[in-house]
Design brief:
mainly alpha; single chain
Length: 93
């Protein structure tokens, strides 16, 4: 029996799809910077690796798909407003 993945599905590899995906990662408390390897992400509260090996593979695949389709800079641009909101910054001010 396989455990259900905590990683949201990438609905499409458009800018809006990537923005939604990063937002869903934040809602699941799983957001990390797309330039970081998901295998290196540690949960601060317990010092444990955040993602399982299968989740790491899934995340690497999804990020690769976004990079291939959108390009590196657009992936970062899609993540930016989600990160700023997570840090309490209001971009509309």
């Amino acid at each position: 029996m396989h455990a259900q993945s905590r990683i949201p599905k990438l609905r499409d590899t458009t800018f809006d799809g990537a923005l939604l995906w990063f937002s869903e990662m934040q809602c699941g408390k799983l957001l990390f910077h797309p330039e970081d390897d998901p295998a290196d992400i540690i949960t601060i509260s317990n010092g444990q690796q955040t993602f399982t090996d299968s989740e790491v593979q899934e995340l690497r695949f999804l990020l690769s798909e976004m990079e291939e389709r959108l390009g590196h800079d657009r992936v970062i641009e899609a993540a930016y407003p989600v990160f700023m909101t997570a840090f309490g910054e209001h971009l509309d001010d």
